[in-house]
Amino acid sequence: MAEESARIKRCPARDRRPFCSGLAVCLVATAAGATDAPWCDRLATRLPTVSAASCRQSAVLPSGARSTNGFPILERDIAASVAGAAGANPPRVLLLGGIHGDEPSASALVFRWLQTMDTPTAQRLHWKVAPLLNPDGLLAARPQRVNARGVDLNRNFPTPGWQREAPRYWAKVTRSDPRRFPGKNPLSEPESRWVHDTIERFRPDLIVSVHAPFGVLDFDGETEPPRKFGRLNYRKVGVYPGSLGNYSGQHKQVPVITIELPHAQAMPPDAEVQRIWLDMLEWIKVNVGR
């Protein structure tokens, strides 16, 4: 496979993107775990329990899309590998973290789960994983919810009536809270466009989006919602103009599980990380198929 082989991308001399700064050559990590992944050194300084080495071991690769400031949107594609069990069309799961840059535990959890994809239930699924959708927010001098252009990416998806509803909701309900600015147009940001385009290409049967710090499970879709993952209980949070749950779960009819961790900065205990993962896999096994 192309992503299994080493690739070298030369950065133009004028390139000042964060992951290329000071490098004449950027070596792109291989899925086998190459040591040259300069983005991992930067992310390890901000993500709890994620070291540069464990980031490299996760085998994430640049997707080809970049954030506003030029940081690569990292992804990993993991095909189903349990012979016979998955069938010709294994369920597809899009796993996302870090759409808000001030929720580093959300990204760290996805990086941790990338180390546990060897369970039989997980291997029955086709995964597309993006652990950090808003690198600019995470890597800002002070981590911020919004991206580098001040847009809340989770209010930037093209839900029906966005041009009317999103600005009105922002002005009336949030009182023009800059942390929740939806942008001037839907999909105005490269990060939200990547999610949109990935949904169109990958055609997931389920989207799992990890957030913090409400400490609950939310769900948008027609399927019976999960009741409990680990210590997280189901509680409907609400539907917002431009949100991913609204766009995908309500409009595109692709169900969305939103995992809200209890703390934005600190990770749950290891046993809880594993319990949430196993409970989620069991729910997917029962409720998601093609």
How would you describe the overall organization of this protein?
The chain is α/β, with parallel strands linked by helices. It has one domain (61-287): Aminopeptidase (3-Layer(aba) Sandwich). Helices cover 29% and strands 18% of the residues. It is built from 9 helices and 11 strands. The protein has helices at 38-44, 52-57, 104-113, 120-123, 135-139, 162-172, 190-202, 244-252, 270-287; strands at residues 7-10, 25-28, 61-66, 72-78, 92-97, 126-130, 206-211, 216-220, 228-229, 232-234, 256-260. Strands 3-4-6-5-7-11-8-10-9 form a 9-stranded mixed β-sheet. A two-stranded antiparallel sheet has the order 1-2. The radius of gyration is 18 Å and the shape is globular. The two termini are 25 Å apart. The model is unreliable at 1-34 (pLDDT under 50).
Rg (C-alpha, Å) = 18 Å
**Cα shape:** globular
Total number of β-strand segments? 11
| CATH superfamily annotation | Zn peptidases
pLDDT average, as an integer?
Answer: 88
N-to-C SSE string, H for helix and E for strand: EEHHEEEHHEHHHEEEEHEH
User: How many discrete domains?
Assistant: 1
- Percent of residues in helices comes to 25-40%
Structural class: alpha/beta
Amino-to-carboxy terminus distance: 25 Å
Strand content: 15-25%
CATH topology: Aminopeptidase
Question: What would CATH call the class?
Answer: Alpha Beta
pLDDT < 50 stretches? 1-34
What is the count of helical runs?
9
CATH architecture: 3-Layer(aba) Sandwich
What strand line-up does the widest sheet have? 3-4-6-5-7-11-8-10-9
How many strands, what sense, and barrel or not for the largest sheet? 9 strands, mixed
